[in-house]
Amino acid sequence: MEQQVRKSNFDRYANAYDAWFMDNENLLYSEVKLVAHFLKDAGRILSVGCGSGLFEKILADEFDIEIKDGIEPSEGMREIAVSRGLNVVPGTAEETDFGTEVYDTVLFNGTPSYITDLALAVRKARQALKPGGRIVLIDVPKESSYGIMYNLALAVDTWGHELLRGVNPKDPYPIELVRCAHWRTTQEKIDTLRDCGFTDLQFAQTLTRHPLYSNAAVEEPVEGYDRGDYVAICAVK
C-alpha cells in the first residue's frame, strides 16, 4: 500500500518534479555534479528509480556519462524518461529483477528514501554487479538540514506552518513527495552496505549551505559526509 501511494504521487506530480528542479537550477547542477563524481569510467550503469531521466539526460549531454538502463515504478515519470532515450523497466526496486553480473555500476540517485526495503534493493544490486563493480547511493541524509526540515514539514503536513516561516526555501520540494519519503541517516546506509557485503566505502557531499541559500550558486562536490545536504556513498562489490 505504501509503495502504491508513492507511485500514485509521482505519477501525479511527474511534471512538477522536473519543474521544481528547473526552478532551482543551481541546486540541480550541484546535485548533478555530485552524481557525476562517482560515475567517471563507470561502465554499464543501471539507474534504480531513474524518475523522469532528468539527471541522466544532463549527464549524457554535458558530462559524457551515458546511462541507458533504468527502473522506475511511476508511469508518469517513466514516460518522460523513455522520451529522453532511456530503456526503462517498470517496477519497484524490491520487485524488479536487476539481472546477475550484468552491470559495472548500480546507481540509486535520490531514491533510497523512497525504497521501503533498502537492504533488499542493495542485495539485488550486488547480485547485478560484475565482480569489482560499484554501487552508488545518493540521497538527503536524515540528519542534514534538508532532512530535518523535510521531517518537520512532514510532521505538520504543510510548508505553510509558522514553525517553518523563514526556514524553508521560497520554492520548497512538493509536500506531496515529502509525504511519501522515509529519510535514513548516513550511518544507516553505511550499515546496510556493509551488512550486504560491500567494501571500500567512499563519500562525497554537496549542498553545504543552509537550505535557504542552497540555490544561490552551483557547488563542486567535496569529500566526506559531515555537512552536506546531499551525500553520495560509493562502495565496491
UniProtKB/TrEMBL annotation:
Alphabetical keyword list: Methyltransferase, Transferase
One Pfam family from the record: Methyltransf_23
GO biological process: methylation
Keyword Methyltransferase belongs to the record: yes
Keyword Zinc: no
Gene3D superfamilies: Vaccinia Virus protein VP39
GO MF term (any one): methyltransferase activity
SUPFAM superfamilies: S-adenosyl-L-methionine-dependent methyltransferases
InterPro entries to which the protein is assigned, alphabetical: SAM-dependent_MTases_sf (IPR029063)
Name the UniProt record assigns to this protein: Class I SAM-dependent methyltransferase
Phylogenetic classification of the source organism: Bacteria, Pseudomonadati, Bacteroidota, Bacteroidia, Bacteroidales
